[in-house]
Amino acid sequence: MAWTNSLKEKIEARTARVGVIGLGYVGLSLAVELARAGMAVRGIDLDLERVSLLNRGESYLVDVPADALAPLPTAPTAEEMPPGTPAEPAGMATEPTPFPPQMCGLSGS
Question: 26: helix, coil or strand?
Fold first, then answer.
């Protein structure tokens, strides 16, 4: 259990590095709040358009204004994150929020 004590200490000292997988409504909001709390946050998403917008400091969510993205780092360059960089010690995975097709404009009628 030494690693749990170490992680707890890092969280309390705000030195933990956290990876958030999935930067949709829940993931991006979580990443912003963790960064505001002083954590080093790395966001991961498969949607390249989202990643590109975030790296330009632009938000794609109505509830997350662009100025709220300021605490988040931009994507590292190859020089900043060379091969063999250790994984984040804590991670959060978020999943798509299920919406009825009618709310997403996907209904056939």
Answer: helix
- How far apart are the C-alpha atoms of 53 and 70, rounded to whole Å? 13
Burial class from Cβ neighbours inside 10 Å (0-12, 13-18, 19+) for residue 71 reads middle
Q: Is the entire prediction scored with pTM above 0.70?
A: no
Where the chain has pLDDT below 50, the residues are 77-82, 103-109
Q: Are 78 and 84 in contact (CB under 8 A)?
A: no
Instruction: Say how far residue 55 (Cα) sits from the centre of its chain.
Output: 12
Bridge partner list, 44 = 21
Type of residue numbered 15:
T
CA angle, residues 18, 67, 40, in degrees to nearest 5: 15
Report how far residue 30's alpha carbon sits from residue 104's, in angstroms, rounded to the nearest whole number: 23
